[in-house]
User: Which sequence fits this backbone?
């Protein structure tokens, strides 16, 4: 395994949507989960859980739920909306690969919250603000092991199409307890593509010094 610096991991961990079918070693799956649990969380409550899915039949069922949600929200929604700008359209056109091919990922890690998200905005921000740093840790750790990943939310309990699926939902497929909510799907595998810096707006465009009106 080639050593990856923290700098390279941060600056080259882009969405890897095309993954090889080669199985991921169990020790690498355990490593990325442990890395996820090193993240900070509100009150150090660590209200996260992870379901690691490698069984082909279960992956196929999760992919079917994601495919239905993706076709509903992306293919028949965002991409058909004349108001969708070109940059957003390009992103969602690429995301259709996951919609149609999620089952090809050798592993899918489902990130969960172990309490239902309340309507209270402050409490909700604390919960989501806890699990997403864990997911970022997971993806950086995967990069360190030469594994590609991407962050998916459709088909989970909080996606725009939640409750509208005709197929079983992710929570039903995984038999999640009533108090547990699926938040993210992370396909994981060896990338069929190159690492590289993702396209982002220049950091200066979103940075203000001392007060909002001041930029350098």
Assistant:
């Amino acid at each position: 395994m080639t050593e990856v610096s923290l700098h390279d991991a941060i600056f080259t961990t882009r969405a890897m949507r095309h993954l090889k079918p080669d199985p991921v070693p169990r020790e690498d799956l355990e490593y990325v989960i442990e890395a996820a649990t090193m993240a900070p969380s509100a009150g150090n409550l660590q209200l996260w859980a992870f379901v690691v899915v490698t069984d082909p039949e279960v992956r196929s069922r999760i992919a079917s739920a994601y495919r239905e949600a993706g076709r509903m929200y992306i293919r028949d929604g965002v991409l058909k909306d004349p108001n969708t700008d070109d940059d957003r359209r390009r992103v969602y056109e690429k995301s259709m690969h996951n919609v149609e091919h999620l089952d090809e990922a050798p592993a899918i890690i489902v990130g969960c919250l172990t309490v239902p998200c309340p309507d209270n905005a402050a409490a909700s921000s604390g919960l989501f603000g806890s699990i997403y740093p864990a997911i970022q840790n997971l993806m950086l750790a995967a990069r360190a092991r030469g594994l590609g990943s991407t962050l998916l939310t459709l088909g989970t309990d909080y996606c725009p199409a939640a409750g509208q699926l005709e197929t079983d939902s992710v929570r039903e497929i995984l038999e999640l307890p009533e108090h547990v909510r699926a938040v993210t799907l992370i396909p994981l595998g060896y990338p069929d593509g190159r690492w590289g810096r993702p396209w982002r707006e220049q950091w200066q465009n979103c940075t203000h010094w001392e007060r909002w009106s001041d930029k350098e």
Notes: The mean pLDDT is 90. The longest helix spans residues 121-144. The CA atoms of residues 177 and 203 lie 41 Å apart. The chain has six helices and four strands.
